[in-house]
Amino acid sequence: MAEVKAELGVPDALASCHTMKVDGYIIEGHVPAREIARLLEERPAGVTGLAVAGMPLGSPGMEAGGQVQPYQVIAFGPEGSSVWASYPKSAS
Fold first, then answer.
1. For residue 26, what is the enclosing H or E element?
2. Per DSSP, what are the bridge partners of residue 54?
3. What does DSSP assign to residue 90?
4. What 3-state class would DSSP assign to 6?
5. Does residue 92 lie within any of the structural domains?
6. Which domain holds residue 78?
7. Is residue 16 part of a domain?
8. Could you tell me which residues are beta bridge partners of residue 55?
9. Whole-number Å distance between alpha carbons of 50 and 78
């Protein structure tokens, strides 16, 4: 899988356990569905995909009895990466 991730442009620091292509974008790791939907709606310039590095507790598929580790969804592309969203979301 390391070769596939490299071919798709997933930065090593963002590699996780799952990799998929959705409508031309790369989704790496346990990215919440709402962020994928937002990506597909907004289609920001310079973004190749979204990633959640590692396997943080509380991320989709990593629910563990209410335990939640803070994590970030990172947008990445040829010019670098930036925070797309932070979890858990604040109750504002």
1. strand 25-28
2. none
3. P
4. helix
5. no
6. 2-87
7. yes
8. none
9. 13
